Amino acid sequence: MSYFTPDRRAQAEELLSLYPKARSALVPLCHLAQEQDGWLRPEAMEEIAGLVGVTPAEVRGTATFYDMLHTEPVGTYLIAICTNIACLLDGAQELLEHAEELLGVRAGGTTEDGRFSLEEAECLADCDHAPCVQVNHRFVRAQTPEAFDQLVDDLVAGRVQETIPPHGTLCRVRRDGGLRVDRQQIAAERAAARAAKASRAAAADEAKPSSGGSS
Amino acid sequence: MDASEASGVPRIVTAGFDDPESYTIERYLARGGYQGLRKALGMDPEAVVAEVDRASLLGRGGAGFPAGRKWSMLRPDPVTYLVVNGDESEPATFKDHALIERNPHQIIEGTLIASYAVQASQAFIYVRGEFALGLERMQTALNEAYAYGAVGRDIFGSGFSIDIVVHPGAGAYICGEETALLESLEGKRGFPRIKPPYFPAAIGLYGQPTVVNNVETMANLPWIVLHGGAAFASLGAGRSTGTRMFALSGHVRRPGVYEVEMVKTTFRDLIFSEQLGQGLREGRTVKAFVPGGVSAPWFGPEQLDLPLGQDEVGAAGSMLGSGSVVVMDSSTCAVRAAWRITKFFFRESCGQCTPCREGSGWLERILYRIEHGRGREEDLEQLLDICDNIAPGLTWPPQMTTICVLGPSIPSSIHSAISMFRDEFLLHVKEGACPMSGGSHG
Ligand SMILES: Cc1cc2nc3c(=O)[nH]c(=O)nc-3n(C[C@H](O)[C@H](O)[C@H](O)COP(=O)(O)O)c2cc1C
Ligand code: SF4
Ligand code: FES
After folding, report:
1. A178 domain residue, yes or no
2. How high is the pLDDT of residue A215?
3. Would you tell me which of B253, B335, B422, B437 could form a disulfide with B278, CB atoms 3.0–4.6 Å apart?
4. Closest CB from B135, B153, B173 relative to A170
5. Nearest to B135 among A85, A171, A200 (CB)
6. How many A/B residue pairs have CB atoms within 8 Å?
7. Per-residue model confidence as pLDDT tens digits over B47-98
């Protein structure tokens, strides 16, 4: 039995086919597993290991390097508040404290009902909307305590499901059609281009008046 | 942006930004999209390289290396790769985020032009994992480009074929460093590789020669091919040609991404112009500013009139780096700012090199202690001492003691803060508290 659902299994095969080496699909496959379960279950890592040809320990070892890959369960909504320099200058620390109070967890924690995880983030590259807040990696621009309260209300009431899918779903757009050119065709085209370039260079050399032949 | 237009300076990479649907292929085609690619495919690849060389296009990812030169250095091999860096995570840098969400087709078109110029076997666009919308926009754009015939087999009937893959990151600042990016793309932890021998142009992705370029660098290519390298080089001055996106944040009225002509624009213009940053809040003055990402040493008000040019800023002891300018006004606590930047480096150090891994932690703890009123006068010397161990001599650009330049970038903010605001550090020690707290604290 595959860990992935049939549709995701097909997607996994397609991801593998995109890269010259299977291991390159490791991170995309981890994202795919998180889309299925919200986090990286041991069974997921085992299956990914088989797919890319490494040990499950190597998958875990790689995944733990990356902040977005979770080898423990996380809340349905992962709220990240940036406190880096531009946001710090605009009250990020205060907003983070407000969030901790409202949600009743410290940064790094998950609420008891499993609904929210809170994270203190590094710069999220949206510094002109400081302090910057993301929910499941979607920019929500809740820059004041009031806007933050409203955001949490909306999340609880399920009003923003359209724009903010549950944690794990990253890119909802699927590549259509895999790779379009086979590698042999590319190799043949490039070889022909190299030959053409060499003959252009030779022709250019010949066209040049010889100047003592010290080239 | 408007300022540029009024003065006849073209918007090369942010054209269409005012259109809320700028990211669709319809809108992109309507503003001349994929014409640069069509033209390039009719030229010899080496002629495209020559045009980019003539443009003197400096890489927009931070190091500012000329793109044409980089391409020429590629080790000849039947299999080469192009990797486009959209991992943007240098604190306060948010130009690539805007570009990816609002102009993905131009990045793709540039990637195709570069692929053709260097005859890459396959191209990858690495997008920072935290950009969910950016990933969706980029993947949608790529799907559209395939359907349009701009990517894939026999592009526009030219006989040139290539595939592009959009690859998601997963949250790690260090993966923006080019060799870490390649490790990450190979499905590994993002540990930077040691150079030499691992210069991507020689030993890159899967050991093959690889060009790594920033997304904004790519986005300039269609314009350069269409209008010629000379036209690009006529904008700006000296080695800093063309326009560039600057990400302006911190204590300004109108933070945002602005595309302006290089060198012809100064920091003062960027921060104070009515069309750009619109200055500071009532009654505030510039205390200091970060001129090019938090890896760069800070500047004070006396440097406001420096032009936005790579060599000009370099000669003044800092760098234009990733194109991000953070303004700190008179209410800012310099200790707190330096502490937060250092905390970032501590969290993001990949841990391979002792000076970076250990040094960043020691520095962070000492700065935290001073900020919270538990500092000692000797702490200042100790901070500088540790900085000197990471980057001997505290010169700019820094001496290397580590595998990548993340380590040697750590001292920048600390050294700047202590040199510019020593009294403020001492006041923290003397008062046993942060003298700025209680106010707006930033
Ligand atoms: C720690 C570190 C982080 C970096 N992050 C990025 C990044 O997020 N995006 C980027 O384009 N370049 C980044 N760079 C620079 C890249 O190593 C590389 O120089 C650049 O992608 C080359 O593209 P360019 O020549 O077009 O600028 C980083 C460098 C270092 C040392
Ligand atoms: S300098 Fe720091 S980030 Fe760079 S390789 Fe060494 S430990 Fe890693
Ligand atoms: S500093 Fe917070 S988003 Fe950039």
Report:
1. no
2. 41
3. B253
4. B135
5. A171
6. 206
7. 999 999 999 999 999 999 999 999 999 999 999 999 999 999 999 999 999 9
Mutation target vs A (from B82, B85, B94; most A CBs, 10 A cutoff): B94
Average pLDDT over residues B396-417: 95
Given a cut of 90, is residue B7 above it in pLDDT?
Answer: no
Range of the domain at A86: 77-157
DSSP SS3 for B298: coil
Residue B312 parent element (H or E): helix B310-315
pLDDT of residue B8: 81
Residue A64 makes CB contacts below 8 A (sequence gap 6+) with A71
Average pLDDT over residues A148-170: 95
CB atoms within 10 A of CB B67: 26
Residue A112 distance to chain B (closest CA, Å): 25
Domains in chain B, CATH or no CATH each: 12-233 (3.40.50.11540), 236-329 (3.10.20.600), 334-431 (1.20.1440.230)
What CA–CA distance (Å, rounded) separates A106 from A119? Answer: 8
CB-based contact A123 B257, cutoff 8 Å:
no
- pLDDT band for position B138 (50/70/90)? very high
CATH number for position A110: 3.40.30.10
pLDDT of residue B437: 77
The DSSP bridge partners found for residue A78 are: A117
Q: Please report residues of B whose CB lies closer than 8 A to that of A24.
A: 167, 185-187
- What percent of chain B is modeled with pLDDT above 90? 96
Q: Which two tokens stand for residue B240?
A: 């800093």
* Mean of the per-residue pLDDT values of chain B: 96
CA angle B39, B40, B41 (to 5 degrees): 95
| CB within 8 Å of B419: residues ≥ 6 apart | none
Rounded Cα distance, B355 and B360, in Å: 8
Token pair listed for A155: 């999340």
Q: How far is Cα B417 from Cα B411, in angstroms, rounded to an integer?
A: 10
The average pLDDT across B278-307 equals 97
At A43-95, the pLDDT tens digits run 999 999 999 999 999 999 999 999 999 999 999 999 999 999 999 999 999 99
3 state DSSP class of A82: strand
Chain A contacts of B93, Cβ < 8 Å? Answer: 123, 125, 127
The answer, yes or no, to whether residue B3 has pLDDT greater than 70, is: no
* Cis previous bond, B397, omega within 30: yes
Please work out whether the CB of residue A87 comes within 6 Å of at least one atom of ligand 3: yes
Please give the tally of structural domains in chain A.
2
* C-alpha A56 chain-centroid distance: 20
Residue A215 is assigned to a structural domain of this protein: no
Q: Model confidence over B324-355: pLDDT tens digits?
A: 999 999 999 999 999 999 999 999 999 999 99
Distance of CA A101 to the CA centre of its chain: 29
Q: Is residue A1 part of a domain?
A: no
Q: How far apart are CA A72 and CA B125, in angstroms?
A: 29
Neighbours of B358 (CB within 10 A): 16
Residues A82 and A58 in one domain: no
Give the model's pLDDT for residue A210: 61
If 0-12 CB within 10 Å is exposed, 13-18 middle and 19+ buried, where does residue B278 land?
A: middle
Residue A200 lies in a domain: no
Going from the Cα of B380 to the center of ligand 2, the distance in angstroms, rounded, reads 24
Of A24, A138, A200, which is closest to B44 when you measure between CB atoms? A200
Closest protein CA for atom 4 of ligand 2: B404
